[in-house]
Amino acid sequence: MTSASPDHTPDVKELLRDLRDDRFWVRERAAETLGYRRSQAAITGLLAALGDATSTVRERAAEALVRIGSEEALAGLHDILGREKVTEMLSRTGLQEVVDDVQQIHLEQMMDTFYEALRHDLHAERWRAAQGLWKLKGAQAIEALLQALQEPGPESQHQIQQDARPASISDRPDEYTLLDILARQDFQAAWRLAQDLVQVDAEYAAMIFERVLDLTT
């Protein structure tokens, strides 16, 4: 196998059957060949092969999915194995540079999804997006969260009155207040409290968000 060849449906179907063969070397060869064919029809079978009992079959299946390179193939690969496992499995192959590029693209796609979700209609989805960004970017995610809180959301943005603002930091809600609200699954109250914090002091709010996200993710 040295280069990709055009898809032939019967050949792909046969190779997919071989992925379930009792002989591990047949499954291994089938996975490798499917990778060179780059057939979208092979994705489901290759994803299933990631759970094969033989490590070399799992590695060939992972390599094949990277070679196919579609969003479906790569998303499935990362969802099943996770980023660290994918890197570990393919670090010994010549595909590592490709994998690094793929992971970066996948990471950017995930971040775009989370950024968009920060303005979701549901408050629970906004908090999940904030937590997802925290996992990916750490403290760098706080800036995006602060910006989302300061911008009008799908519903009328909650505004606190000037005379209702806490007079000092000691009077302001702390991370435990947010955690208590989140523990009750009252995401609307949590989001509005977060908006209040930003209106009072963005720097103080950023500090609270870091603590809360660190404890809830």
In brief, what are we looking at here?
Helix content is 69%, strand content 0%. The protein contains twelve helices and no strands.
Could you walk me through the main structural features you see in this protein, from its secondary elements to its overall organization?
This protein has 217 residues and is mostly helical. The protein has two domains: 9-111, Leucine-rich Repeat Variant, CATH 1.25.10; 118-216, no CATH class. It is 69% helix and 0% strand. It is built from twelve helices and no strands. The protein has helices at 9-18, 24-37, 43-49, 55-68, 71-81, 83-90, 96-117, 123-137, 140-150, 175-183, 187-200, 202-216. Helix 2 packs parallel to helix 4. The longest helix has 22 residues, at 96-117. It is elongated and about 65 Å long. Mean pLDDT is 75; it is low at 1-10 and 154-170.
